[in-house]
Design brief:
Residues about 1-10 and about 235-250 have low confidence and may be disordered. The protein is mostly helical and about 250 residues long. It has one domain (about 50-230). The chain has helices at about 5-25, 30-40, 45-70, 75-90, 95-110, 115-130, 145-165, 170-185, 185-200, 210-230. Helix content is about 70%, strand content about 0%.
């Protein structure tokens, strides 16, 4: 069980004092509200675990993106487009990544809700901060093939962790989740279509060999996302279906 933070202890003590004062003043309505706040103060494990999972998903995705960057391989979506533009324009990846996601965040707020959008903004900002640390690290030497496969796996697992906790990394992820919610389209297929489009656009930035490795990385990421969706698809068990009487053997 996770320990309570100092802010949590302060909130518990404050609500307890407020509860005592309300009971002394015989104001039962405010006393009930203070009691609920006092009891809800202990329910901090689930939200904190959610934020830890979001941070872990961003960390895995950032590691995958940095691995692809040093292997001269890119991924799809707004992250891949930001990598391509950063390579062509010699700009910072995290700045382009945040700017490209801005219109998708507006779309997310109108279609996916405020909570999902706020979680996505947090994930984008955290991912931008994590990828900015790359300039302070020594450049590793990594094989392009290994970087494409390992980077695709890390990005796929990281994005699925964000999906599971009601967040995304913006861009095609938002569109994929919206189409899945609205039309039951597998997000892995949607992600593959968007990533293939980015792959065609990046023909001007990378040689053909790197594009083939990028296609391999995109296929790995999309496969992990599709597998995650299939494993989390709700199933209808036969035991839960209403029993239909059979009339074959009736005379």
């Amino acid at each position: 069980m996770l320990p309570l933070l100092p802010f949590d202890w302060f909130s518990l003590v404050y609500n307890r004092c407020l509860l005592r004062s309300m009971l002394k003043s015989n104001n039962m309505q405010q006393a009930v509200r203070a009691t609920m706040r006092y009891m809800n103060g202990f329910k901090t494990k689930a939200p904190r675990r959610k934020w830890l999972h979001l941070a872990l998903g961003c960390l895995l995705t950032a590691a995958g993106l940095m691995m692809l960057k040093h292997a001269q391989v890119f991924t799809g979506g707004t992250a891949g487009m930001a990598l391509s533009l950063a390579h062509m324009l010699h700009l910072k990846f995290y700045i382009l990544f945040f700017l490209l996601n801005f219109p998708f965040l507006l779309f997310s707020f109108m279609t996916m809700g405020r909570s999902f959008t706020l979680n996505t903004i947090f994930s984008i900002m955290l991912l931008s901060a994590l990828t900015s640390v790359d300039r302070f690290l020594p450049p590793p030497s990594i094989s392009p093939t290994v970087g494409a496969i390992a980077g695709g796996i890390l990005i796929g697992v990281g994005v699925c962790a964000l999906f599971r906790n009601g967040a995304s990394l913006g861009g095609s992820n938002i569109v994929a989740l919206y189409l899945n919610r609205k039309f039951r389209i597998n997000p892995g297929k949607t992600n593959f279509v968007f990533d293939s489009t980015v792959l065609l656009i990046s023909l001007f930035a990378y040689p053909v060999a790197n594009l083939l490795l990028s296609a391999l990385s995109i296929a790995v990421t999309s496969s992990i996302m599709a597998l995650y969706k299939r494993r989390n698809k709700p199933r209808t068990h036969k035991s839960l279906l209403p029993h239909k009487p059979s009339f074959k053997n009736r005379h």
